[in-house]
Amino acid sequence: MQKKQKANLALAISAAGFLGTLPAGGFWGGLLHHGFLAATVGGLADWFAVTAIFSKPLGISYRTDILRRNRQRIMDALVTFASDDLLSVKNIMQVVRRQDVAQLLVAYLEHRGGRERLVETVDHVAVRAVNTLDSAKVAGEIETILNDGLRTIPIERVAMEGLRILAEEQYSCHLIRALAEVAQRVLASPVLRETLKENVSLLRKEYEGDSAGRAFVLSSLGLTDERIVQIICERMEEKLGEVIAGETPTYAAAKAGLETLLRRLSQDPSLLAALQAWKTGFLRQVSLLPLLVQWIDAHVKGEQPFWLAALETFLNEKIDAFVQSRPWQRRVDAFFKNLLEEELTKHHAVIPDLIRERLGEFSDDALVAMVESKVQDDLQMIRINGALVGSLVGMGLFILVTLAERMW
After folding, report:
1. Are 352 and 82 in contact (CB under 8 A)?
2. What is the model's pTM?
3. How many domains does the chain have?
4. What are the pLDDT digits (tens) for 397-407?
5. DSSP secondary structure string for all residues of 18-54
6. Cα(136)–Cα(307) distance, rounded to whole angstroms?
7. DSSP for 109-136, written as a single string
8. Residues ≥6 apart with Cβ < 8 Å to 187
9. Which of 36, 272, 299, 355 is a plausible cystine mate for 18, CB 3.0–4.6 Å?
């Protein structure tokens, strides 16, 4: 049974008891009659008081319908209490400072799936941000930087210095052997031998000319084109073998010649000028823009760009470092609390505006209904208690009056 029905029932019982005990006589009849009378008076008084808060009981408008008549004053009091007392910056920060924000964040990251959500969110934001970039514009900026950098880099002087370094003993010995090994592989290729054969054939024809004697001599010696190519290749292989073996006159002569050539080239101003001209012409003719655009679209953009794994590794490392570092956690805790206090102080005026706006959405009837629904049980208990206390007071007074009459 609702409290309001109980209160009405108590008032009805009091009134019925008062009327029912009117003809009763004697001490006990009088005691009950005065108890029911006082309970009825107390119940009616409390009913009037409770009802007057929300409406006009019995149509009486004087000092009744309190909520409607004092709506603005009540709302101002509620707003002031909520914003300046209950939700003041001091009270809010007292509650916040008792909490360890960093530990709450650690628990979220480690045990509530926060790590995965954070990494996933950062990945999503980063990928979307990169995919919205204008590849051509970014590539153009990178191309400008690269071209400026290449123009300022003295590539030609680096090349000349490289030639000088290669001429030193510790490098030239390895270089001459490497060149000899490459020459051996080239010499063994069928393409080279075929080329040599064609050139030998041309030289042979020029040598013989219209002389039958020269042709006869070469033929009698068995110097066919194939034989001449074979002799040349065998001789070259022998010399290359001596170079690769090292510590031979052929090796020493080849190394000395290579070192001399490299030193001269490293000091040749015409070579330096040629390299400078080549670099200038190359940078003028070659455009890196299409290559950069293609590379950005293929590797930087997309759903799984090459940098995504590195970003995830970086984020997980930072999360691990945060979880394990109490000094870092204390700094984060202090940062968030100070930031919150600063923002609350800066925007605290928003709180009363929000409360006032929310209360303003209620009509008078809706506001009365809402307040009544929240407090009616307690108010109805006042009516019930008023009837009970009234009955006790009425019976007490009857007993005192009866005793006084008998004493006097």
Report:
1. yes
2. 0.50
3. 2
4. 878 888 887 77
5. HHHTTT--HHHHHHHHHHHHHHHHHHHHHHHHHHHHH
6. 20
7. HHHSSHHHHHHHHHHHHHHHHHHTS-HH
8. 233, 236, 237, 240
9. 36
